[in-house]
Amino acid sequence: MEAKNVFLDFSIDVPLLLHHFCCLPSTVESRNGFTFIYAIKANAMVGPRAWIGGIFNRSSNKRLGSDKYLNYPLTPHQEQSLHGLQERLGVPFDEAHLDHQEALRDLWNAAFPNVKLKSLISEQWKDMGWQGANPSTDFRGCGFISLENLLYFATRYPACFHRLLFKQSGLRATWEYPFAVAGINVTFMLIQMLDLFSEKPKCLPGLNFVKLIGEDDEAFDVLYCIAFAMMDAQWLAMRASYMEFNNVLQATRMQLERELSLDDIQRIEDLPAFNLI
C-alpha cells in the first residue's frame, strides 16, 4: 500500500514533548543488516551491528547534572562557538527577508532539482511535508535555524536526505511522518536536549557537545543530520505510524543523550550513529 504523509499540527509552536525515561528489559532482533534493541516502544534503540552492542559498555559513569560537570570551565573558543550558535537560535524566519527567501528556494532546488518551484507560496511545498502552501508558517516554532538545518542536510548529505525525504528504505507505514515538519521537530529536540538556551549547558550531553562545537563550527548541523537519520531508523525499528511520532522522537533523544555522554567522543564523527549518514 502506498505510504501517505499525515500533517502534524505544530502551527502554534513546536510542543515540549521530550523527557528522560528509564530503560526496561529488552529483546534483540536483527533485520536488514541492523540490530534493533527493543524495550517498550518509546525506548527502542537502533544502530548498525558494528557499534550497538558496545554502546552501553562505553557509556560514561558521570551523572547528568552533577556539580562537578556544571562547573566545567569553557575555553574562550568554546564560549565563542556556543555564543555563535545561540545567536543563530535567536533569528526568526522572516518571509520578507531576501536571504531567507533564497534559502527556501535553495532547499526546494536541493530536494527537487528537476522540478521548478512555481512560487514561494505554492501547494508544491506539501510534497516535501510542509503543512500548507506557505512553509513560513511552520517555522514559527523554531526560527531560521530549522531551515538552515534542512538545507545543510540536503547539500552536505544529499543521498541520505533524499532517502529520508522519499521514504526509500525499509517497510514504511501507511501514514508516514511529514518530512519537513519532522525536521523542524528534530531541530527543536536538539535545542532542548543540549540546553542551548542556557548561558552554559547544565547537562553532560550539552557540555560534551560544547567541546565538539569548539572543534568544529558545523557540529550542530552535522548532529542534526545524524539525529534526523536516527529518527527515521527508529521509526522503522519501532514499526511506527503517525500517532507514535512523539515516542519515536523520545527514543531518538535518549539514544543521542547516551552517545553524547560517552567518554571517548572527541569529534562529531566519533559518535556511533555518525555512520547513519
List the helices and strands and how they pair.
Elements: E1 4-5, E2 27-31, E3 34-38, E4 45-48, H1 49-52, H2 55-58, H3 67-70, H4 76-89, H5 98-111, H6 144-156, H7 158-165, E5 175-176, H8 179-193, H9 204-215, H10 219-237, H11 245-259
Helix pairs in contact: 4-9, 5-6, 6-7, 6-8, 6-10, 8-10, 10-11
Describe the model.
- It contains 11 helices and 5 strands; from the N terminus they run E-E-E-E-H-H-H-H-H-H-H-E-H-H-H-H.
- The protein is mostly helical and 277 residues long.
- The chain has a 3-stranded antiparallel β-sheet.
- The longest helix has 19 residues.
Q: Give unreliable regions as ranges.
A: 1-66
- How many helical elements? 11
Radius of gyration: 18 Å
Provide the structure class.
mainly alpha
Using the alpha-carbon principal axes, give the shape.
globular
Strand content: 5-15%
Strand order of the largest sheet: 2-3-4
Q: Spell the H/E element sequence.
A: EEEEHHHHHHHEHHHH
Number of DSSP strand runs: 5
| Helix share, percent | 40-55%
What would the average pLDDT be, to the nearest integer?
77
| Biggest sheet layout | 3 strands, antiparallel
Terminal Cα separation, in Å? 27 Å
